[in-house]
Amino acid sequence: xxxxxxxxxxxxxxxxxxxxxxxxxxxxxxxxxxxxxxxxxxxxxxxxxxxxxxxxxxxxxxxxxxxxxxxxxxxxxxxxxxxxxxxxxxxxxxxxxxxxxxxxxxxxxxxxxxxxxxxxxxxxxxxxxxxxxxxxxxxxxxxxxxxxxxxxxxxxxxxxxxxxxxxxxxxxxxxxxxxxxxxxxxxxxxxxxxxxxxxxxxxxxxxxxxxxxxxxxxxxxxxxxxxxxxxxxxxxxxxxxxxxxxxxxxxxxxxxxxxxxxxxxxxxxxxxxxxxxx
Length: 278
What we know:
Shape: globular
Radius of gyration: 19 Å
CATH topology of the domain at 5-152 and 183-209 and 245-258: Rossmann fold
Structural class: alpha/beta
Number of helices: 8
Strand order of the largest sheet: 3-2-1-4-5-6-11
Order of helices and strands: EHEEHEHEHEEHEEEHEEEHEEEH
Oligomer: single chain
């Protein structure tokens, strides 16, 4: 049986790269897109602003799975996803995994949110993500899974690298004492993507830790587990408690959708100590 062919839109980005490497190691035939002008092995150029993008790549590769980590102007992304939906509608065996964001709830920060709640975005980014979710779910139904992500962390993630540089320099790090968030691990996102491509799955999935943690406390815990000095936090207290958290609540979600906070923190310890993703 031949390997499932998967196209990762936005594979040259950080999270797209983590997903691409995970799928390739798991035996998928993986192709990805980048913004550069020349083909590099299985990393192919894509101009998301082109009116017919990504038709040529879809026709050339005929992927059975598409993972979207696209970034760029919102209108260009929406156009790309409309054309992706049209491709998948013509090929009912195609599975689409779309990476969305906790920002679809940035208009309601008084509590954490689960998959059962309708989006309530306030920012342009949140409204765009909610529109893209609705487009794909409405067009593709059982062919599409949406992963709503909070902040994504990992030992090589941009967020952690920025924190490590600030700690090394003794620079202040802004944090809110009563902003409560959950977080996803980069390899966790890659793992659930693999599971959904293999076994199918439809609708909205929240991915991350199962509970929310105060932002300042979370940064202290990450630094301590990574063996760094305590960060020089410049802590503020918001007028009211706020939550930027999308908690996993689906009973039928792959096991990797939810992690305990200690499982996420273990990834920052010495290699080999982190709990394996299932």
